[in-house]
C-alpha cells in the first residue's frame, strides 16, 4: 500500500529548494492564489485554471486528490516552498491504465515561479515513483502542440516525442490535437 503521508521529497531547482508532497487541506488557499496568479500562463493550457476558480474548487480538488490517492486512481503532488508552505505548482500521475501499466504525467507551475526549472526537477522523481512504486512501464505527457514550456519540460525529462495525435484532448469545448511524449523506465538512466 502506498501511504499518502510517506510520499514527500525535498528537491533543489535553479532558484532554491522546494518540496513535493500530496495535497493537504491546508493548501486550498494557496492553490486558489496560485490559480488566480496564473490565469495568463497556466490558464492558457489547463482549463481548470480560470477566472471563476473559487476556494470551493480548490477544496474539492484537494479532497478528490486525497480520495483518489487512497483508491489508487491517481497520484497528485503539490509542489511547495518548504520555508513558507506556499504551493508553487502541481504534478501528478493520472489516467492509470492497469492493464497496460501506463498513465499520464502532468505538471504546472505558478506564473511567478516559471522558468526556474521546477517542473523538470519534480518530474524526474515523480516519474521514478510511477515506475518503481506503481509498477508502470510507460508515462505519457500530452499537451497542446503550441504549449512550448510543457514540451520543453518533457524533453528535459528525457521523454521522446511520438506524435501529434488528432483530436486527443477535449479543451475549451472542442476536440484539439495534442503533442504526445512518452517516457519509459530506460529513459530515466
Mean pLDDT over all positions: 90
Instruction: Give the N-to-C terminal Cα separation.
Output: 26 Å
Strand content: 25-35%
- Please outline the major beta sheet: 8 strands, mixed
Count of helical regions: 5
- The level of helicity is 25-40%
Q: Name the strands of the widest sheet in spatial order.
A: 1-2-3-4-5-6-8-7
What would you say this structure looks like, in words?
This protein is α+β, with helices and mostly antiparallel strands and 189 residues long. It contains five helices and eight strands, in the order E-E-H-H-H-E-E-E-H-E-H-E-E. It has an eight-stranded mixed sheet, with helices on both faces. A hairpin with a 2-residue loop joins strand 1 (9-13) and strand 2 (16-22). The model is unreliable at 1-5 (pLDDT under 50).
Helix-strand blueprint:
Blueprint: E1 9-13, E2 16-22, H1 28-37, H2 42-45, H3 55-70, E3 75-80, E4 87-97, E5 102-109, H4 118-133, E6 138-143, H5 148-157, E7 160-171, E8 174-183
Parallel strand pairs: 5-6
Antiparallel strand pairs: 1-2, 2-3, 3-4, 4-5, 6-8, 7-8
Helix pairs in contact: 1-3, 4-5
Q: Quick summary of this structure?
A:
This protein is of the alpha+beta class. The protein has helices at residues 28-37, 42-45, 55-70, 118-133, 148-157; strands spanning 9-13, 16-22, 75-80, 87-97, 102-109, 138-143, 160-171, 174-183.
